[in-house]
Amino acid sequence: MSTTTVRPAKGSREPGEQPDPPEAELLPPPSDDEDIPVPPGAARTLLAALLGPHRGRITLAMLVILVQQAALQAGPLLVAITMDRAVPALRDHDSGPLIAVIGAYLGCAALSTVLQRAFIRMSARINQDILLELRGRIFRHAQRLSLDFHERYTSGRITSRATSDVDALRELLSEGLQELLTVFLSVFYISVLLLVMDWRLGLVSLVSFLPLYLITRSFRRRSLRVYRRSRTATATLIVKFTETMNGIRPVQAFRREAANEAAFGVLNRRSATAQAEGFRELARFVGLSRTTANVWVTGVVVLGAFLVTDGSLELGVLTGFVLYLRRLYDPIDQLAMFLNSYQSAAAALEKIAGLLAHEPTVAEPAAPVTLPAGTGTGREVAFRGTRFAYRTGKEVLPAFDLVLPAGRTTAVVGATGAGKSTLAKLLARFYDPTEGRITLDGVDLRDLSTADLRRGVVMVTQESFLFSGTVAENIAIGRPGATREEVEQAARAIGAYDFVAALPEGFDTDVRKRGGRISAGQRQLVAFARALLADPAVLILDEATSSLDVPGEQAVQRAMRTVLAGRTAVIIAHRLSTVEIADRVLVMEQGRIVEDGTPAELIGGTGRFADLHQAWRASLV
Amino acid sequence: MTVHRLTLTTMAENQESTLPQSPPRPEQEDPDPPTPRSGQPPRSSPATAPEHRSTVRSLLRLWPYARVIRWRLAASISAALVAMLSVLVVPLVLGRIVDGPIAHHDLSALWPLAGALLLLGLVEAGLFYTRRVVLAGPLAGLETAMRGDLYAKLQRLPVSFHDRWASGQLLSRATSDMFTMRLFLAFPLVFLVVNSLMFAAGTAVMFVLDWRLALITLLPAVPLIVLTRHFESGYSLAARRAQDQTGDLATVIEESVLGIRILKAFGRHRTMAERFRSQTHELRETELHKAGLLANLWAVIVGLPELALGCALAVGAYLVAQDELTTGTLVAFLSTALALRWPVESLGWLLAYANEAATATDRYFEVLDEPEDGGAPAPAAKADATAATATATATAGTDEGIRLTGVRFRYPDAPDDTPDLLCGIDLHVRRGETMALVGATGSGKTTLTALLPRLYEATGGTITLDGRDIREIPRARLRELVSVAFEEPTLFSASVGENVLMGAPDASPEQLRRALDTAQADFVERLPAGTETQVGEQGLSLSGGQRQRLALARAVVGDPAFLVLDDPLSALDVHTEALVEQALREVLGSTTALVVAHRPSTVLLADRVAVLADGRIAAVGTHQELLRSCAVYRELMSGEAAPVLEGSPAR
Questions:
Q1: Which UniProt keywords apply (chain B) (predicted)?
Q2: Domain-wise residue ranges, chain B
Q3: Parent domain of A242
Q4: Taking CB atoms and an 8 Å cutoff, what residues of chain B touch A619?
Q5: How far apart are the C-alpha atoms of A332 and A318, rounded to whole Å?
Q6: Do B295 and A82 touch (CB under 8 A)?
Q7: How far apart are CA B188 and CA B350, in angstroms?
Q8: B402-409 and B422-429: which strand pairing?
């Protein structure tokens, strides 16, 4: 919600070749106008990959529409036959040809009816399957992508990819493919018919395809450019929209409405401009191609008149020919609509393909190593020559070695920006170390399957997002399939049971949007319960009690003593009360571990921790 | 699914049987909460039940927006009409050419007719161009206006509205639905008008050419009208369901990205993907159902006229053979009939579009019709308020600061059998005083703070600021007076400076610097572009402590008259906390402030402390007093469920 309208477009920066760093770092924010680089031809490749599995059904649908068009296009031919054969025969009192022709006409009508219905149903099935696949792909891929990517790409943009960009493809599939097929088939049929009826006039007619092709090509190029802009404009619009709606409290409290409206208006108009331009391109295309078509029709009529006059063409043939010729160009409108949808979808597919082409920086191993069987006393964590730097090169954690023995609880303290959270995120494999490795019972985290890793290591962060659904469902994220008793047990163990039970519908209370009804402290308790339910060998708590009140925190601490038994735990906290339950304390400063010992040792000493501890004691009652 | 029902049941039965299925998702995901529901089916209030609004009535609501572009729309329709006329005239000219110059081998007569044909063609092409180009700008403008209005409306709607509505449902209204409406105005609407008129004109031409053949050709019209009405009722239900499901899908996507850390931490992306999958499958079912309905309609629409045309051909041939009809007339008739094929066939998708646009319009106006005064106080409360204001005005001058009198609050969707969350809060924060608000987790502290800037409306009682009822102060002014730092520090995509200055857009750079100093946000200087650094979702992600400090700076920047801080130091480390406290004391010295506190260190910022328990203020006093006298407070501060000594008055 910028107070000044929007920030200016970001020059010619290479579009996001590297993700923003996890914390405040030295990269410009992603620009409004660029996403991630799109491999050339990505849109087409993606479309091909989506259509591929349905080749059989698409072929069948095409056959259906082929026959349907044949039946439909037979109309004028049968009219011509009626005029040239059946009517003269009728004059000779022979109604046989007429009956045959009319029978054929009615048969064709019935056939095209049945086939039309079949085609719509078939193509809907294909389209929906393709959309299902594409939505699923986007969703799964977004879930697979690493946090550094998400921190840069914004949720609004992913939402835009999975909704409005998919809508563009939906539009193409639901109207477009049928249109295209119909266009091509009818053009093909009519061309063949025209050549058969009279090859000279036929050839002349077909020559018109050359200027039409050129017009089409130019339209495609220009409209793709416009639609690319339109897709980006839509995405920024969505980003702004979701940001406002998700932050509605501060928006209203700080009276951002007017400034937001102005900023949104700019984005909105940008999107409108692109759209209007797309529309104008379409108008231009239709105008030009119509002109070409109509000039050709006149030409052919004149030519035909000459041929009839010199006797080399029958009148009936010319009549049929001209009727058909008009229909040869009828699909121009449909073609325009198709191309329009197609270019819009192509631009959208490009964006989607760009997202899908982005590989997670924290990748799943190709050949995962299985963890040795657990002993029930947690697992040993070791950092070996681990170093972490942002891609910009700025070092956050210089190379260090650290062993956290199984079953022990280690507290990490230090000022904001000392690298505590980075340490925790490395251990949770939200990021991979720049150098060195981190092992769990001797196995490199990078060699573990996601399932194994998450059974082994779970992190609770201070940010405790709740998903829409019930409280019980939110806790059960820790272990899907957990019974109600297990969920309640986990809540009880952490001291969350009472408040949940007191909610209007207990564990079945809907947390509504973002848990608007549940306080920050309560949300942290839910997050804790979730972690307990997951029952990991290694538990990381990153400022996980910051919003709890004193009784809440103490309840959590009491619970911790039992909960942490048999686990390896890493606790990051600025409130030292949490630290007291630790076996060991690490003090970090500027990425380095500067003190290491038992709480008693450190408090007794004269180091930083002793200072911190004193300051903290003083802040208590 | 229910494809066959279309033809098997009457319209009324059809509606009857489809209605109960219309909200196919679980209750909590029900996307249309605005209709008052009290266990009654939505039928009971037809005015608000979108299923019962007719397509036309829904679409008519677009008129205020369409009004602006009505001349352009008219121009576009006229252009299309005239172009269509040329489609009708061309066969006539062709007939003339065939019957005249060609039949008589008279080439000299050909040229004027050929010239006319060419001219017609060029005019037609020009009209095709015009039809689209006149709408290009205005239509985009219309969409912009509608979306802008929706956005503005959503910003004005109370927080309680946003609590009820999943953001995906709002987003889908601003994007997918808007797209549907614009598309409808761009093509289908024009074609609906043009094709109908063209059909009428074509019919007239056919009657002029030969009324017998025309009658035969028109025979299928009656069954077609009946069938399309059937179609409409079923299709709009399905269209609405598909749109709602699309909105739900957007919600899942958004949540899955916003909660990505949790999903990653627990390796639960499969669970979420499963949820997403089942929803996309539901949407697929709905779309297939829609396609089934459309397929049936389309088959009939394509088939019946063709059959009739076949008959007309037979009769026409017979008449020509009997010399009751010229070949030219029959050719002209048949080409006219064939030219009408498209307007008739297009009816299928035009109707489908119209239905979808109608349901999209319903969805759009559902939000726009929402009353903005959210939880407007009940009349009784209003009377109360006037009474209280009277007394307040009487005592104005002596009654300064923040005063809450008998303030009650319950969430609008709270179950009937639960007590009010706040049931009679009486609290006075004197001018210049800092009052800490302490209470157990979930006792309603945050809710109470949200009442001051009227993010939520108190359901009872009055709140006055320096003697003025907050309901009498214009909302914008009120929020200027009351500055809030939220529990959850949200930063927006803007620069650090802009984020902080949201609290006071007119503040000087000096004030900005002071606010940052107060919040100990010295890290800002080390950011790549200092206060110009872009943060928020589209910028750098800052740590929780950094965000909290910026939010604090935002709250204090304009030296607000009233300051509300919701646990403002929770994410800070001990050292920083101490520094912030020190700096805050100065700010608080001159400000009337209400500070939600969880810990002793925060409480020490305050002159007095109020303890919130069971929806009321249980005790007010200084920290020391309360430690001595209030067991609840002692427990909250020290955590020890201390044995009740000294006969504590609380509880």
A1: ATP-binding, Cell membrane, Membrane, Nucleotide-binding, Transmembrane, Transmembrane helix, Transport
A2: 5-17+56-368, 379-638
A3: 51-357
A4: 574, 577-578, 599-601
A5: 22
A6: no
A7: 5
A8: antiparallel
